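User: Please predict the structure of the protein below. I'd like the answer in structure-token form so I can feed it into my own downstream comparison script.

Assistant: Understood. Taking the following sequence of 272 residues as input:
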Amino acid sequence: MAGLNRSGADDEGMAGSPPPAAASVALDAVGKRYAADGDGDPVRALEHVSFSVADGEFVCLVGPSGCGKTTLFRVVAGLTEATNGRVLLDGTEVTEPTTDMGVVFQEYHLFPWLTVAENVGFGLERTDRSSAERERRVDEMLDLVGLTEFRDAYPKSLSGGMKQRVAIARALAVDPDLLLMDEPFGAVDAQTREMLQRELLDVWASTGKTVLFVTHDVAEAVALADRIVVMAADPGRVREVVDVDVDRPRERGDAAFAEYVGVVRELIGAGP
């Protein structure tokens, strides 16, 4: 394959630079420090993390252990306050969780006392939609993830893959601008994981949502992403951004797929 399209952290913009006009979510020089135990220096979890995700784009975030992926996820989601820098969602600074952002975690976080339909519709209860509108939206989401026949089932009767599909439907039900996902398929077996990846791409294609997806699985990132943001550690920062220029659906046995996997793994293991 003739040269991969790669860019360094400097190409993504640093402190004070405005986000691209078409950006759905933009991180501008985000940093996070934690107080050290005792008299030590503060721990720099993140330092000058800057990149953007365009409207309708699918971007994956990867990196070595300790690079701050989960911390960054929490900052983007408004669950943790950045020490410096900012996160913008459609031009508005994120300072707390918002219904404009649908969040999916590795653990399903379903309410065991609610049915599948009730779990999917939980966030809609806080909107001004009528009961009939909420019901229609739940039906649409259940159809989207292929769980219509399980609408009255309880989570305990579902497989891990089905539970995560419920979590995705719940996140999408409020029609967020951004779908933010943190290792969402990490708790399922390899076969189910690949099935959920294909289903997520179908959902993404049919909804046109902007997706920021955190994963430790490089092959998963190559299978899913338009671009892969590769982070470095100590402190967590953007090492490089790789454009995945391979037509979908992507076959894991193809030479181009394997080359991207190799390049991203090399970047992750490159050290400081």
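That's the full token string. Confidence is low (pLDDT under 50) at residues 10-21.
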